[in-house]
Design a protein that fits this description.
By secondary structure, the chain is mainly β. It has one helix at 63-69, and strands spanning 3-4, 12-15, 20-21, 35-36, 41-42, 75-78, 98-101.
């Protein structure tokens, strides 16, 4: 079993509560007959974590807020160790999935998690310029 303390966790996570059966996904999605992950969330999220600067997303802007909310941060578990919701679909969750459980933080939806690389422009391949 794998788990992590908040200080050891990734910046962005997949939440177990967002995993859904493919046939239950949005009508415009490609049909999938398996479990699918939801969108990533910031590990640290909620009131006080939003910023106009993307490099500050996913963290409290006032550091003392982290201390006040430490106990509300979820834990990361390997997917097979998580109790799944009751479903007619018996297919196991992937061993490769590490999902957040037990978070009491609520996403504001104002700062989306962008897959890496998340820079706004292309970098010049010549670092001397």
């Amino acid at each position: 079993m794998f788990w992590s303390w908040p200080a050891q966790r990734p910046v962005a996570v997949y939440a177990a509560e967002d995993v859904s059966w493919g046939s239950d996904s949005a009508p415009d999605d490609d049909p999938v007959d398996s479990w699918i992950l939801g969108t990533q969330r910031w590990s640290v999220r909620g009131t006080g974590t939003d910023s106009p600067l993307a490099e500050n997303w996913g963290r409290y802007q006032v550091r003392l807020d982290m201390l006040e909310n430490w106990s509300r941060i979820g834990t990361i578990l390997q997917a097979p160790q998580i109790d799944r919701p009751k479903s007619k679909n018996t297919q196991a969750w992937s061993l490769q999935w590490y999902l957040e459980v037990g978070s009491q933080l609520r996403d504001t939806g104002l700062t989306p998690v962008e897959p890496f690389p998340n820079y706004a422009t292309n970098l010049d391949p010549d670092p001397t310029r």
